[in-house]
Amino acid sequence: MMLRMMGVLLCAALVACVDVMPQKDFNLEKMAGKWWIVGFATNAQWFVNHKAGMKMGTSMMLPTAGGDLDLTYTNLNADGSCWRMTHLAKKTDIPGRFTFTSQSWNNENDMRVVAVQYDDFALIHTIKTKDGVPEVLNKLYSRTPEVSVALQQKFMRFSLDTGISSDNIAILPKNGECT
């Protein structure tokens, strides 16, 4: 019975993932620049133990001449050091959809920019697959560390709609910036 229930939940999660498409009329060049990561939601088990200690970080997005997206993430640690990670997200045939392999986490990533107002926010949905097991990660990006309550609610609704429990959705507290 438990195995059947897990199978049903996994199928429901996969169906939610498949239906998420990038925003129409996506403009790669307008994604360029600095973004604050203000919201984080995932169905990954590790998040339960780390959610309380997470804080806002930043991401620099730089479109390449070939249409890919260079991503650099930074987060200021409690001891004042900086955590950094970079990825080159490769374009696909669908504008606003990118794929990359994370060397740090040893997983395949299918990233979709599902909603964006280029001077305000971006909602990015990523399906991360490791050893054949998919996990959903939604991030809310903002051009500033401030985000409206309406936008927070939109992020929470989207995350719930993509199979993430309310306990695994976080609006991250402010943090200092890496230099």
TrEMBL record:
Alphabetized Pfam families for the sequence: Lipocalin
Keywords (A to Z) from UniProt: Signal
Gene3D superfamilies attached to this UniProt entry: 2.40.128.20
InterPro entries: Calycin (IPR012674), Lipocalin (IPR002345), Lipocln_cytosolic_FA-bd_dom (IPR000566)
Domain Lipocalin/cytosolic fatty-acid binding: 32-174
Keyword flag NADP: no
Gene Ontology molecular function: any one: small molecule binding
Signal peptide as annotated in the record: 1-17
Family assignment from sequence similarity: Belongs to the calycin superfamily. Lipocalin family.
Descriptive protein name: Lipocalin/cytosolic fatty-acid binding domain-containing protein
Taxonomic placement: Eukaryota, Metazoa, Chordata, Craniata, Vertebrata
